[in-house]
Amino acid sequence: MARKSKPKFDSKAEEYSNKAKALGHPARILILLSLQSNKNQTCKELVAQLPFTQSTVSQHLYALVSAGFLESKGFKTSTIYSLKNGAIQEFQILFQEVFGIKKQDRQLSMF
To answer: Quick check: helix, strand or coil at residue 48?
Structure first.
């Protein structure tokens, strides 16, 4: 039996899908909102604000860093997390490009 080849997707569609998947959990949205109001935070600081365990927050931070929404910097024995400059706006533009929303139609606003 012949194996089906992997479908080829548009690179922008794949990028959008990967980023959307990272935003697909409400905990990650809460993390982004927390980092939007308090720019630089450690995992421990986020855990103190959110109703999640340290391991849960850590896993979600990893997904957000991997998708390009957050930056992380080592500091002493901790890691400081912050929103990557322009990441949300880039995601919004990518969404508009993938779905063919023209510049004059761009009324969407995230965050």
So the answer is: helix
Residue 87, helix vs strand vs coil: helix
The answer to whether residue 72 sits within a structural domain is: yes
What is the full DSSP assignment across 77-99? TEEEEEEPTTHHHHHHHHHHHHT
- Give the position of tokens 């995601």: 91
Q: What pTM, to 2 d.p., does this model score?
A: 0.81
Q: What domain count does the chain have?
A: 1
Which domain, by its residues, includes 50?
Answer: 11-99
Phi-psi group of 18: left, alpha or beta (phi > 0 → left; psi -120 to 50 → alpha; rest → beta) = alpha
Whether 91 has a pLDDT exceeding 50, the answer reads yes
At residue 42, the 3 state secondary structure works out as strand
